[in-house]
Amino acid sequence: MKSEAxxxxxxxxxAQQKAILFGPSVKQRSVSRSIAAIPxxxxxxxxxxxxxxxRRYVDEVLVIDDGSTDDTRAIAHEAGAVVITHQKNAGKxxxxxxxxxxxxxxxxxxxxxxxxxxxxxxxxxxxxxxPVKEGNADMxxxxxxxxxxxSTIPFYRRIGQQVLTTMTNMDSSIKTTDSQSGFRVLGRxxxxxxxxxxxxYSVESDMISTLSENGAKIYEVPISVNYxxxxxxxxxxxxxxxxxxxxxxxxxxxxxxxxxxxxxxGAFLFLGSASWYVAATAPLPQPIGHSMVGxxxxxxxxxxxxxxxxxxxxxxxxxxxxxxx
Length: 325
Fold this sequence. Notes:
Number of domains: 2
Low-confidence stretches: 1-20, 24-31, 241-245
CATH architecture of the largest domain: Alpha-Beta Complex
Strand content: 5-15%
Helix content: 40-55%
Shape: elongated
Distance between the termini: 45 Å
Oligomer: single chain
CATH superfamily of the largest domain: Spore Coat Polysaccharide Biosynthesis Protein SpsA, Chain A
Number of strands: 8
Strand order of the largest sheet: 1-4-3-2-5-7-6-8
Radius of gyration: 24 Å
Structural class: alpha/beta
Number of helices: 11
Order of helices and strands: EHEHEHEHEHEHEHHEHHH
CATH topology of the largest domain: Spore Coat Polysaccharide Biosynthesis Protein SpsA, Chain A
């Protein structure tokens, strides 16, 4: 399973850069079946052990060094990984995109994604690979909430993850228990079908919603998680959570405008009606303030409902034009 360790400088865009990244065509090289891809940003303290463990279970390990300023690249290289380096930090979405492109061009059948900070246990890779290899799933997500693992997760993280999972479930045609888990396996079908437009950490949610829309079979298996890692989460969990939530809400608004705008419109209509009811049942002289507030809420509610219908119609027309095109 020992792989050729190569360090590339990589910027997305030009054909020349992609030629440098991917090298000779697949026909000129032996094609491996499985690859573990590890997005990293300043993970020098942990990436070496993650790479060494992962190499036991896959044919090749790829580390995407997303503009690290420490020794991540060199340590991953010494541990036997193929290393692709982004010249500047572009976010996890960009790192996963690089991993997907590499897996497609190299013809891998299975792509394992896991973090480089030591939170995920590479010894659990076979557990995630099995449903895909047996044809029962196109993507397998390692869930922290299918067994007693949840007790080891800090309370504030459990709350945030539950909110994001609930919103992701609203944005997709399937229901998962851990939409934000970065430990997952994609089979060849999912590798080919997933077109990534994500930025930052919303990639996990986008992957679920996009693949479920395309009819992919998504499966969950329980995993353990280690939060006692040497390099703590580099992005503030509140900032991270709101960033992902904002992306999910935008997606829901675009896909289901009537539901989204209709919910707010209905709430405004309810508040407006309540204000009018208070004004109508108040003793004379009736308060003008409640009537004015009620009028504003009802007007806003009707506008939101109309906006939802208009956006839904435009999205339907746009989708129809894409299909005919």
